[in-house]
Amino acid sequence: MNINQLKSKLLPLRGSEKTKFLRDLKSYVYVYCEIDEENRRIPIYVGKGKSDRFFSHLNDIGEPIDDKTKKINNLLKENKLGIDILAHGLTNREAEQVESACIDLMGVENLENVVRGKGDNVKRIPLNEIAHKLAGKSIKVKPEHCGVAILINKGWKPSFGYMETFECTRGIWPKKMKTACEKRDAKFAYATFNNIVKDVYTIHSWVSAGTQAYFTRPNILSSERIKKARWEFVGTRAPDEIRERYVGKIIERDRSYGDPWVFVGYKGSNK
């Protein structure tokens, strides 16, 4: 089945009927599916759009340029590709929110999507954490627990377990972060995602990037140049009483001013 035949099968409308249908859809969220032997429709990609945006990835078929296109290409050849509309009649803003919620629910690691989406208020978050966030409640880090809040917004995912979160937090960081932590004698590292503490680690020392193995981030050290320029800390999970005090809560902190870290529990300036 070629591309045009597939499009006709998926959207059996012509002329004014097709035009009206696409107009009435307004903004929508769609999903590309793999149809298995039991006719289950397994999501592989979530997107949003208007008009016939849901066909745009079919137009890319040919020489595969990325994993998503390669996957779609293979499903097309095997006649196992389906396209579903998850929600329609939306504004563009509503479509962004639904798309982001769907990606977070399914897990971006289980899809061919590269990013989570743009919705601000639909990120997957445990109930106790959103309660602290919406209530605006924050907790002050005690001086004896002083350390560095490491902002892991770009790398962390809701599906991460203890090891993934730890490896996402301990490296790899620029020399100025390592130098600043040593100067401040930062004792603890607070893994922080969207202002919520995900875990707390005791910092034992700082070493060159790649000194320790990464089991869940095998490609993080792509060159010797990166290894020489970057650093990581050696650490363990903090004692239970410290983790119970801060994990799942918002800690009081200054702005990071573009850096992926900010000091907490100290008096005076952040840097």
Q: Could you write a compact summary of the structure shown?
A:
With 271 residues, the chain is an alpha+beta fold.
Provide structural commentary:
With about 270 residues, the protein is α+β, with helices and mostly antiparallel strands. The chain folds into two domains: about 90 residues, GIY-YIG endonuclease, CATH 3.40.1440; about 130 residues, no CATH class. It is built from nine helices and eleven strands. The strands form three sheets. A six-stranded mixed β-sheet has the order 6-9-8-7-5-11. A hairpin with a 5-residue loop joins strand 1 and strand 2. The longest helix is centred in the middle third of the chain and has 15 residues. It is elongated and about 70 Å long.
Shape: elongated
Would you identify the regions where 5 or more consecutive residues have pLDDT less than 50? none
Spatial strand sequence of the major β-sheet:
6-9-8-7-5-11
Mean of residue pLDDT values: 85
Number of strands: 11
Helical residues, percent = 25-40%
Distance between the first and last residues' Cα: 61 Å
What portion of residues belong to β-strands?
A: 25-35%
The tally of domains stands at 2
Radius of gyration: 23 Å
Major sheet summary line: 6 strands, mixed
Query: Can you write the helix and strand succession as a string?
Result: HHEEHEHHEEHEHEEHEHEE
Number of helices: 9
What structural class should be given to the helix and strand makeup?
alpha+beta
List keywords for this structure.
single chain; 271 residues; alpha+beta; GIY-YIG endonuclease; 2 domains; six-stranded mixed sheet; three-stranded antiparallel sheet; elongated
